[in-house]
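Per reviewer request, we include the raw input and output of the structure prediction for the construct analysed in the revised manuscript.
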Amino acid sequence: MRILLFIFTVSVTFTSFSQKLKTENVILITLDGLRWQEVFGGADSLLVDDSGYVEDPDDLTRQYWNTDPVVRRETLMPFFWNTLVKEGQLYGNRNLGNKVNCSNTMKFSYPGYNEILSGFADDERINSNSKTPNPNVTVLEYLNKQKAFKGKVYAFGSWDVFPYIVNEERSGIPVNAGFEKEERGDLTQKEMILNDLQDEIRSPWGGVRLDVFTHHYALECLMNKKPKVLYIAYGETDDYAHGGKYDQYLWSATQTDDYIREIWEYVQSDENYKNKTSIIITTDHGRGTNPKDTWRSHGGSVPISDQIWIGIIGPDTPATGMMTGDKQYYQNQVARTVAHLLGVKYDQPKAGAVIKEAMK
């Protein structure tokens, strides 16, 4: 009798858990090196009119500056503040005691992306940005091994290291990154045009393409291949910051915010995704605050560059808005949260805990 009662209890609990979650698809998005300071406060007063970092300080100030940080942040990222915060959650406003940090000590890209995707830091093995296949199984690869998601996981990135971070060869996940053209399956007319334009429109960087290509390749995949799990990694914000171009950094943040709006609006218009899709947005690392030396940089020599942020919107996430209170979260919680939203137990004991507040 006790055994039967136990089985019944487990069955009811599992059924209840399944019924609570409406998410059937997850889109994970990262913006490389975008600081929490801009996300929550908009344009930085120390940089917005600095002629050393801005080509036309007067013009940029007219576009982005206001004495009210609420107005500044809404101007910089209108989708975040008019939709994401109203319908979902945004973590990491340290001014209100809400903290999000990397747990890896490297504080640069590959270690950050590994932590986001695998759910744990691996400082011993992942301590450079070299093109080395990731020895860790990411949550993308883990999901791609599940029957319900096999062949329905895709990744797109601006940085040419992403095929190694996702370990495309081992995982079997199609990764379009760097200056790679889309050559898989029957191409849409837009994909063929993107392939041609990618050859003709030069990027300022050797290993990172412009985000416009990453975005539209990913959007075409979303519209035509209907993935259940999609990872999009935008890269411009970090590269413009390294180059000391604060105006381009802000413009890129605004453009990427609009890209995310376009994705969300498409999701909410398509019967395959509407009210069944969660979007998680975050960054791989932060950066310094001193305009003269640390803003352009991050890593072990810039202690606060482990300070990041996370945004979540979807049918299972309460519309709590900007999270407040003295609470600590970590980058390593993203992977298990992705799996949990999809009703999958992520069998990786090292991974950080699910972000419980993200679930109703």
